């Protein structure tokens, strides 16, 4: 196209040149000869003007004549004017075609424009996001530097504290008297004896007692640090206002209550949490009743060695040490954990109450109030833990053993002359008794609703439900014999009636009279044998099944 345009321009110049020569020869410079079809509109031409230089035109024409296309046209004798018009027409056609193409593609061009605009917007948002991300990275980098500085400072403080603790530890070890050494305890006993002697002489009016009274009081303050030891029997390391001679009695009491209540609560919360980690993994659940549940396990219906927890030897045995039990992979039933927890609570509560009475010289309601100010939060936490555990407990033997543990611990506190725990024991029993009765009633209902026809194949051997009942009933009877409870006997009587009815319903499923009698005799004999191993010979259960067995065998 460029070559054609160049050729057209050259042709026009040649036409102008040729036209000018013809006009000069035929009609003069400005005439129009008949050889031209269209007059050449050149306007007024001033050949004398400086703007029109023929030499330059000649050079331009000569350069065009040297063009290959122009030479080819001249050789073939092409009319340059006609050729110029033809080229112009072709250019116009090409231009119009190009315009039509643009019009046809206008939608695509517009779509492309919109896409480019959308890409520009997306790129702009990405630029903004990258800018924000760069800003966040700068902020994070600054925070990391700050944390590194803080970490370095904390490491320095930690090393300094460790160094100081080592020096102070050596100093404290040299100053603190270990209260667990026999020699120190002997001196405390001697101090008690001297203080008692001084009080006795003061009661008689001896004037010399006033001279030693102040010394003995200060020694009693030192003795207090022995009594305020942690429940784990570690040496006392907590210093109160007791050593401050200017402290008032109220300040001493308030400081004592605040500090000891925190110590006891923290210790028992930690001990209780670690203690529950060594409980049996198999815990009785709602489906573990005497009825035909596949989830039932014989372990919750048999007593075995579990009853030893209420024997005198184990009742006041040392408490369980959870981490030692975990290392030995030992597991304990709930009643064993309950005994250990409450024996620790009983022992520390007795010592705490007696010390409060002696040191603060209080008794009666005043001693009771001060004791509960110290131990109240601990007792409340222990009670709430028991309450939450019993909600999902269906092990009647465990609950009944816990009841008898509480009954025995209550007698122990009474012998030690510590009435401060009486209310706590009553609250614990108020949680245990209703749960125990509910579990028994659920077992009664479970046996009552059992349909023999849904038990599958039957034979004349003792049924597993009657075996469960025999083990379960003999366990509760043997425990109840130590401290009888009439309500327990009533519930066991209801359970026995339902079991007897169940045995008769199952026997009725046999077609022959002989099989019915064999089934009844086998079940009665099994239940009687198990009951006679655990219960006394004159118990109601033994007597009842003995009569039933005799009636079937005679």
From TrEMBL:
Residue intervals of the Vps52 C-terminal domain: 258-554
Superkingdom classification of source: Eukaryota
Subcellular location: Golgi apparatus, trans-Golgi network
Domain Vps52 coiled-coil: 101-222
GO biological process, one term: retrograde transport, endosome to Golgi
Coiled-coil zones: none
Entry annotated with the keyword Transport: yes
InterPro entries, alphabetized: Vps52, Vps52_C, Vps52_CC
GO CC, one annotated term: GARP complex
Keyword terms: Golgi apparatus, Protein transport, Transport
Family membership: Belongs to the VPS52 family.
Entry protein name: Vacuolar protein sorting-associated protein 52 homolog
Source organism of this protein record: Cervus elaphus hippelaphus (European red deer)
């Amino acid at each position: 196209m460029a070559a054609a345009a160049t050729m057209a321009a050259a042709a026009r110049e040649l036409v102008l040149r040729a036209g000018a020569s013809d006009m000069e020869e035929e009609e003069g410079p400005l005439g129009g000869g008949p050889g031209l079809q269209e007059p050449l509109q050149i306007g007024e031409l001033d050949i004398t003007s400086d703007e029109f230089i023929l030499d330059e035109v000649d050079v331009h024409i000569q350069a065009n004549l040297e063009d290959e296309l122009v030479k080819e046209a001249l050789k073939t004798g092409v009319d340059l004017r006609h050729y110029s018009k033809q080229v112009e027409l072709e250019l116009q056609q090409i231009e119009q075609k190009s315009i039509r193409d643009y019009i046809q593609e206008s939608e695509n061009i517009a779509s492309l424009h919109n896409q480019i605009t959308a890409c520009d917007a997306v790129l702009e948002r990405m630029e903004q996001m990258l800018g924000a991300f760069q800003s966040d990275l700068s902020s994070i980098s600054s925070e990391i530097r700050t944390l590194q500085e803080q970490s370095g400072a904390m490491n320095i403080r930690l090393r300094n504290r460790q160094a100081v603790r080592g020096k102070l530890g050596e100093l404290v070890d040299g100053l603190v008297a270990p209260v667990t050494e026999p020699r120190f305890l002997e001196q405390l006993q001697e101090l008690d004896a001297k203080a008692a002697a001084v009080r006795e002489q003061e009661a008689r009016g001896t004037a010399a007692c006033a001279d030693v009274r102040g010394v003995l009081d200060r020694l009693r303050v030192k003795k207090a640090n022995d009594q305020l030891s942690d429940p784990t029997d570690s040496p006392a390391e907590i210093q109160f206002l007791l050593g401050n001679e200017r402290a008032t009695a109220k300040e001493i009491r308030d400081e004592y209550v605040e500090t000891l209540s925190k110590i006891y609560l923290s210790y028992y919360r930690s001990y209780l949490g670690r203690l529950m980690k060594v409980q049996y993994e198999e815990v009785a659940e709602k489906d573990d009743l005497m009825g035909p549940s596949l989830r039932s396990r014989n372990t919750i219906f048999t007593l075995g060695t579990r009853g030893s927890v209420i024997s005198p030897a184990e009742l006041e045995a040392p408490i369980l040490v959870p981490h030692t039990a975990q290392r030995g992979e030992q597991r304990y039933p709930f009643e064993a954990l309950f005994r250990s927890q409450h024996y620790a609570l009983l022992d520390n509560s007795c010592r705490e109450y007696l010390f409060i009475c002696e040191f603060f010289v209080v008794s009666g309601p005043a001693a009771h109030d001060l004791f509960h100010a110290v131990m109240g939060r601990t007792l409340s936490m222990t009670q709430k833990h028991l309450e939450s555990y019993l909600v999902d407990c269906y092990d009647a033997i465990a609950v009944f053993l816990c009841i008898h543990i509480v009954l025995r611990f209550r007698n122990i506190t009474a012998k030690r002359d510590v009435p401060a725990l009486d209310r706590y024991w009553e609250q614990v029993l108020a949680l245990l008794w209703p749960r125990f009765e509910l579990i028994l009633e659920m077992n009664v209902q479970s046996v009552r609703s059992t349909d023999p026809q849904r038990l599958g194949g039957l034979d004349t051997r003792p049924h597993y439900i009657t075996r469960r009942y025999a083990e379960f009933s003999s366990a509760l009877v043997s425990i109840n014999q130590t401290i009888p409870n009439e309500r327990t006997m009533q519930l066991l009587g209801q359970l026995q009636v339902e079991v007897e009815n169940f045995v008769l319903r199952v026997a009725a499923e046999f077609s022959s009279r002989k099989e019915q009698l064999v089934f009844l005799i086998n079940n009665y004999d099994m239940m009687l044998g198990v009951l006679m191993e655990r219960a006394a010979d004159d118990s109601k259960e033994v007597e009842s099944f003995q009569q039933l067995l005799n009636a079937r065998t005679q």
